């Protein structure tokens, strides 16, 4: 019921702003921004993202350069699957606030979901220029690199995250994913070998590399479950990826972004 009153107040404020002359409008405009923003927050909290987007849009109509409102609107668009539109909103906020890494990270997440990992990586690189230690940028860039099968590069970012956040189970799990992908890659190379000479010359090295990567993946997975037992089902599923496709496994990672 309170939400209905809030929406009614929004309509009253909008009418007052239209009717009253400009000297009186500045105070009403500020109140309108706050009211529409509050309405959007309430709607977003109720998973009414479409209505929340409308409220944030109304608020932006009174304060078009408010990057905080843009971020809220972008997150709602992202949640309801409008990834390209969300990327546009985050891009506008990023241009208005060139020091804040959150906006290029938001744009990158949206582009990654939209199927543009290269564009997403550019956004994460931009965010890391703004703040080289930003954990959201490092984590999402690592996922972007994983999607492009650039596993060693992903591990560099994940190593930084684990070093800075040794008690974070999720970062351990993602690094385990990277090592598991490397394991699968070496296994695939061994299965593709033909002839005794090729097996003798390269098979042993591939087997060693696969075993080493699998050991590291297992260590990270075990540590992740130790740090957060609630991750056990997800980690157990990942440890079965030896028999799954890389595409299916990466799909599981994307669902957590």
Describe the structure.
The chain is mainly α and 257 residues long. The protein has a domain at 151-257. Helix content is 81%, strand content 0%. It has 13 helices and no strands. The chain starts with a helix and ends with a helix.
Radius of gyration: 24 Å
Distance between the termini: 33 Å
- The helix-and-strand class reads mainly alpha
- Would you list the SSEs in sequence order as H and E? HHHHHHHHHHHHH
Number of strands: 0
**Which band does the percent of strand residues land in?**
under 5%
The number of helical segments is 13
Largest sheet composition? none
Poorly predicted parts: none
Brief summary of the model shown:
This protein has 257 residues and is an all-alpha fold.
Notable characteristics:
single chain; 257 residues; mainly alpha
Task: Describe the protein's topology.
Layout: H1 2-19, H2 22-45, H3 49-62, H4 67-79, H5 83-96, H6 102-113, H7 117-130, H8 135-147, H9 151-164, H10 169-191, H11 196-227, H12 232-238, H13 246-254
Helix pairs in contact: 1-2, 2-3, 3-4, 4-5, 5-6, 6-7, 6-8, 7-8, 8-9, 8-10, 9-10, 10-11
């Amino acid at each position: 019921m309170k939400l209905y009153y809030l929406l009614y107040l929004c309509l009253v404020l909008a009418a007052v702003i239209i009717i009253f002359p400009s000297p009186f409008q500045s105070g009403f405009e500020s109140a309108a921004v706050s009211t529409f923003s509050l309405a959007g927050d309430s709607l977003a909290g109720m998973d009414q993202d479409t209505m929340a987007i409308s409220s944030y849009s109304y608020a932006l109509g009174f304060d078009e350069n408010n990057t905080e409102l843009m971020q809220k609107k972008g997150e709602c668009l992202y949640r309801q699957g409008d990834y390209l539109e969300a990327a546009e909103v985050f891009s506008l906020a990023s241009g208005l606030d060139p020091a804040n890494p959150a906006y290029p990270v938001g744009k990158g997440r949206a582009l990654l979901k939209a199927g543009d990992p290269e564009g997403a990586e550019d956004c994460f690189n931009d965010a890391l220029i703004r703040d080289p230690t930003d954990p959201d940028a490092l984590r999402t860039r690592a996922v972007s690199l994983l999607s492009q099968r650039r596993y060693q590069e992903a591990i560099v970012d994940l190593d930084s995250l684990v070093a800075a956040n040794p008690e974070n189970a999720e970062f351990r799990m993602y690094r385990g994913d990277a090592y598991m992908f490397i394991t699968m890659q070496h296994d695939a190379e061994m299965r593709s070998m033909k002839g005794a000479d090729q097996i003798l010359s390269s098979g042993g090295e591939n087997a060693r590399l696969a075993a080493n990567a699998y050991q590291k993946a297992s260590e990270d997975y075990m540590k992740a479950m130790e740090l957060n037992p609630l991750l056990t089902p997800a980690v157990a599923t990942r440890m079965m990826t030896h028999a799954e496709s890389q595409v299916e496994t990466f799909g599981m990672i994307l669902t957590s972004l």
